[in-house]
Specification:
heterotrimer, A alpha/beta, B mainly alpha, C mainly alpha, A: alpha/beta, 8-stranded mixed beta sheet, 5-stranded antiparallel beta sheet, 35% helix, globular, B: mainly alpha, 15 helices, 0% strand
Amino acid sequence: MSDVTLSVRGLDAGFSMGGSTVMVVRDVDLDIRKGEMVGIIGESGSGKTVTGMSILRLLPDNAVTHAERIDFLGTDLLGLSAEAFRELRGRRIAMVFQDPVGAFNPAKKVEWHLKEIFERSAAKSPAHVDRAKNWHGAAIQLLKDVGIPHGADVMHLFPHQLSGGMLQRTLIAMVLAFEPDLIVADEPTTNLDNIVERQILRLFRDLQNRLDCAFLFITHDMSIAHMLCDRIAVMYAGRIVETGPTKQVFADPKHPYTQGLLASALALDTKTERLKEIPGELPSPTDLPPGCLFEPRCDFAKPECRAKLPAMSDLGGGRGVRCVLYNHA
Amino acid sequence: MNFLWYLVVRLGGALATIIVGSFLIFLIMQLAPGDPALTVLGDAATTETIAAFREEHGLDQPIIVQYAIWLEKAIQGDLGNSIALAGKFPISELLGNRLPVTIFIGIYGLAIALVISLTAGTIAALRHGKLADTVATSIAVLGISMPDFWLSYVLILAFALSFTWFPSYGFTTPAQDFFGAFYSGFLPALAIAAPMAGVFARILRASLLETARKEYVTAARSFGFAAPFVFMHYVFRNAIIPFVTVVGLQVRYLLGGVVIIERIFGISGMGSLMVDAAFGRDYPVVQACALTFLGIVLTVNLVVDIACAMLDPRRTH
Amino acid sequence: MAAISLKATVFEIRRNRVVATGLAITVLVLFAVTVGPSLSPYDPTKMDFTALLKPPSWTHPFGTNSFGVDVLTRVLYGARNSLLISFAGVSLGAFAGVLLGMTCAYIGRWVDATAMRFVDLLFSFPIFVLALMLMLILGFGVQSVIIAIALVYVPNFARMARNTTMVVKSEPYVQAAQLMGQSALRIMVREILPNIAAPLFVQFTVGLAFGIIIEAGLSFLGLGVQPPTPSLGVMMADGKDYFHRGPWVLTLTGAALTVAILGLNLLGDGLRDLLDPRLRRRSAE
């Protein structure tokens, strides 16, 4: 486990308002190795975005987070001051956002964005200082790398003059300019149309092959996770319910929720007449069921499920599941 | 739409507005009761002198002809003569004396309002929910609720009568004494500024808070940019656009305040000219003043629109 | 997502306090102007030559004016008039403006374009300049002030009603009513108006506040309400004549005016955010 880029243990995150605190992420463990892409999969409201944002400390001021341990390349992130953490952001851990249109400063041209990024990345090494001096050429090369051949023209445009796909490529180029060790991508293709989505996903796969950076890919889409991720963690109502290598989880899903997700994704894929949906809906973080979070919607629910939250069972081979069905160990 | 084209369209619109506006003003003044001839000539008027007066001032022509004549002269810079002032005093000369004074006081007040509101609004937004925010927001709402003419007297009472720091009456024009103008104009400018500063500070605070929640601000933070950089280039830079728009919209309130405050402080500007003319039923002067005020508002709106277009690339590109 | 709703809740609580303060002040002011005059031991017109221009004291909290009349009593009577005048003016302006705005939004095309240019034109006049010209046509007095306030507010209400109607017009329930063949008038009154009422109500509250300022300003200049009718503006105009000898008449009358306006402004502010947080965006130009 020496090549682990990010290791998270017991991460809780929530929001405090008017004296009360509502936790939306609980007890999340996560390991991402160098060169690996780990996917967090969940419905909207499952806490997957909050998980990603809390790792980067980008949650709003009223957020409450604590963790047993967050280790990033040997650095204890929990021990870092706000200023030290800011220094790390971008340069070491960077983020790709869901809405590329909203991620750009509307008042500034694309070139301004790139120039500032290169200037900020200059502190990394003397080579980066040189690159920052000749940022224009480096920027054009970088844009070419992410599939924008006419970068020089794009640089003179304002963000609103570019399509969502172009902006997402540009944003990825900006993130790459930092040469970070970890890239967190929060549903980076959800706001794009189908064809562009596919192009961007292909770009992510290229990057994964080309760079030895670690990726945390947050998505609600099982097929995207299948296409890109080495390992996945399935989140439900703020907790990880199943985790393991992508291929194995897809071949043999253990948790009833994962099974349901896969069944509905497959149903969509093969255009089956009837869609096998999971009945019911995600519980509200203020009104969680007493035992297993999925129990109210589960086909296999037993009385004991209601008694207490099942612990994560280690199934071996890097697989884990939070369900009483596998709790015999 | 490129910037030049935007300018042309906007300029054309302003020109059309002032022409329609001038006709409206002209029409309103025609509706005003009282025969100016009688007002001026008084009891001594005879049928002959009235007829002579009407002919001299073109009052015997149909309205549209009167308007056309007036407009033609106005374009040439001749706004007619004051009927009340003895000796056919040309209105253009009157305006030439009065307008710079009002513009000085207006800009002075606006500048004070901008300084106060930029400071208070920014502090309130940065200290959102804290004591400083509550204090700033409360003072702002109080500022909006104070009639400026009342505030003028409170200021006079406080800073001219109790503490004799500033004069309570009279104004030295910038032409007479540049620094004296700032000194003697301070209290009136402050009275005009206070309600505006309240409006401005509130909109700036709201705009800053709303912008701070935008995703691009989170993105900027994710790049590790320092907080002052993010605030200046992302938050403030974008929040300033609605702020400038509101500043432009407030000019009509600003000039409204000037009308009253000039009289309180005995400032010979456009406002006191117009009120005096209204009392004296000196319609040509009222008309010229109204047109000038309309012109000022339209000019400021034009400038503000251009400023916004330059600040917000989405409007012109 | 949870974060946003939680934030909204706290926002609401904070706003509630604003509404409560505004409401308390407004109710207090309304109580003072309705019941107050009958509680006062003084007569608002009776002169007392033994107590000319007395500074504030326990017997005369706001002092007396140059005729020895109790200023507080006059403020109560005057404020009642000022409020009524503002209310009448803003109501008239709101009625005409909403009618104009809704009609424009409903008919659209050149009617809309022309009327809105006219509204823009009205918007370009400094408020007191517009009011002043109007006073010249109509003569000085209460009715003229009411019409002047109304005219100031027609463009505000017209623009707001138009923009909100535009949004509501394309809602399914309005289109359904159109398909059912209901008359335009019926749709406007029954379907559209209730759905755009909230922002208009807020505008009305804030308008009431500024209406009082317009009345006071015009009367202060001597162009509005004429003495002996008491109004806050008339009283302040009176007070300015002997400001150096008895500053309390003008300052305390104005202070009462400020409190009334403050109450309405707070109420309007709080309601604006309470009724509908999206409202500001909807009514934005």
